[in-house]
């Protein structure tokens, strides 16, 4: 359960990233080239901030750690 729309968008973003990771692995297994980085469009400024910044505030520190792998994908230039 989320407490704000930013958190809900961030959780949704993490679900998309999980699906993308699976699809990329399937395509690579099939020897299909995947052009990186993949561009994702997010319309929530708060979710974008949470995805791109390591800092946490009192409002975001309770977001579950399992969603923070989105940052790794951005840092590894898999996502933009």
From the structure above, extract its key features:
80 residues, mainly alpha
Task: Describe the overall structure.
- This protein is mainly α and 80 residues long.
- It has one domain.
- The protein has 3 helices and no strands.
- The longest helix has 25 residues, at 5-29.
Short overview:
Helix content is 50%, strand content 0%. With 80 residues, the protein is an all-alpha fold.
**Class per helix and strand makeup:** mainly alpha
| Radius of gyration computed on alpha carbons | 13 Å
Shape: elongated
- H/E element sequence: HHH
- The total count of strands amounts to 0
Put simply, the count of helices is 3
Biggest β-sheet strands, sense, barrel: none
Bin the strand percentage. Answer: under 5%
Number of domains: 1
Bin the helical content: 40-55%
Distance between the termini: 26 Å
Mean pLDDT, as a whole number?
81
Segments where pLDDT lies below 50 for 5+ residues? none
């Amino acid at each position: 359960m989320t407490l704000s729309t930013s958190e809900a968008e961030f959780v949704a973003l993490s679900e998309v990233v999980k699906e993308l990771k699976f699809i990329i692995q399937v395509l690579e297994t099939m020897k299909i080239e995947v052009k990186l980085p993949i561009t994702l469009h997010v319309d929530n400024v708060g979710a974008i901030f949470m995805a791109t910044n390591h800092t946490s505030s009192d409002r975001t520190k309770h977001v579950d750690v399992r969603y923070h792998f989105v940052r790794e994908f951005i840092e590894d230039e898999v996502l933009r």
